[in-house]
Amino acid sequence: MSIKHLAEAVIAQAMDDLSDDAERNDSTRFFKGEGFRICAERAGMDLPDQITLLNIVNSIVCATKRQKTAVTNARRTHQKSGKYLHSTHNKSREWSVIGL
Predict the structure, then answer these.
(1) Average pLDDT, the chain
(2) Quick check: 64 and 24 in contact, CB under 8 A?
(3) pLDDT given at position 88
(4) CA dist list (Å): 57 to 29, 51, 60, 63, 81
(5) Against a cut of 0.70, is the pTM above it?
(6) Shortest CA distance to 4 belongs to which of 27, 51, 38, 53?
(7) CA 69, CA 93: separation in Å to the nearest integer?
């Protein structure tokens, strides 16, 4: 295995780790640090490619944070009011409040 293939594998694994709650913080630190720059250079990525990949990583991390925040807020709302929003699954896409 060449250094290029090894560097590509490290980057691919870090991308994969973004979807794992237990590994996401380490993966994010990798992309923010010197390790990513070194691996990207060894993998033959030029600066525009590196920026593109970092933008993808950023969008994944931000989307994950938004999902967690939405779930947390929904739980808080549920706990405070004893009610939650529920989609009625009809064509009008109306929302209704359902009590527990």
Answers:
(1) 80
(2) yes
(3) 47
(4) 11, 10, 5, 10, 36
(5) no
(6) 38
(7) 23
Residue 68 has pLDDT above 90, yes or no: no
Select from 31, 77, 37 the least CA-distant residue to 57: 31
**Residue 84 burial by Cβ neighbours in a 10 Å radius (0-12, 13-18, 19+):** middle
pLDDT above 90 for 35: yes
Phi, psi of 4 (to 5 degrees): -60, -50
One-letter amino acid at 87 equals S
Domain boundaries, the chain: 3-99
- For residue 37, give every residue at least 6 positions away whose Cβ sits within 8 Å of its Cβ, in sequence order, or none: 50
